[in-house]
Amino acid sequence: EAHEDTAIEGEEIFLMGFVVSNSFTLRRRVQSCSRGRSVTMQSEGRIDLQISATKDILSKQLAEFVIQKAADAKKEKGKFVVALSGGSLPKTLAKELVTDDYKERAEFSSWHVYFADERCVPLDHEDSNYGLSKTELFDKVNIPASQIYPIDPSLSPEECAAAYAKSLETGIGEGIPVFDVLFLGIGPDGHTCSLFPGHPLLQENSKTVAHILDSPKPPPQRVTLTYPVLNAAKDVVFVSTGSSKKDAMRSILKVRLGSHINSPR
User: Fold this and answer.
1) Is the Cα dihedral 216, 231, 30, 202 positive or negative?
2) In the 8-state DSSP scheme, what is residue 169?
3) Beta bridge partners of 233
4) Where is the Glucosamine/galactosamine-6-phosphate isomerase domain (predicted)?
5) Model's pTM, two decimal places?
6) Could you give the maximum distance between any two Cα atoms of the chain, in Å?
7) Residue 132: left (phi > 0), alpha (psi -120 to 50), or beta?
8) How do the domains of the chain map onto residue ranges?
9) Closest among 75, 109, 83 to 233, alpha carbons compared
10) Three-state secondary structure call for residue 49
11) pLDDT digit string, tens, across residues 166-202
């Protein structure tokens, strides 16, 4: 078995998905992992680390995971509440889900889809996370339009964040919303959602949805779920693909995190 640094350094294209379950607090380092090997760590929650040899394999793993979670949620409460981020995630997630075999198993009619973060642009703009998910997934499966919850881009960023927080309260419940699954990406700088390393927004604990006017990555105006929401989710799936994420992933896996889920601060 190779030490984690060797495995990560050696990947020309580094593909990883990992699942954080039930308010996980990382207290131990991953000791070793190699291509295609699954590493499970036990702590206050559970982390399943999966390194996939190809994007196709990763897409199949994600499809199997989400289908099982959707079935469990539907059996428990009649619906599956999920949030998606942007970037390469929608395409990776949708690749297998839109095939006939998976569409028959996914029970999309029970899905309620929110967005972990969004750019304050028109919904048909090329930078819109909703627009990307619509092209890759929504247009190809039978999720009812009334169960997909985009932002209102006609509002100011502050008003948009407040309105989206109200939408979460109406659709999921008062207080901190509890998602069945959050699907998140990781940027080369280690950011997730629109929570960027070193940004004051990382300290936001009173709001479920916050706005940002000075995102280090364009476009600058965005809305995002906050850390309390990420930490409340039943399962959080981080999906990272490509060699540009290698350094960020190495750093995240090495750091002893003080509480729950934190991107590098």
Assistant:
1) positive
2) H
3) none
4) 54-254
5) 0.81
6) 53
7) alpha
8) 5-258
9) 83
10) strand
11) 999 999 999 999 999 999 988 888 888 999 988 999 9
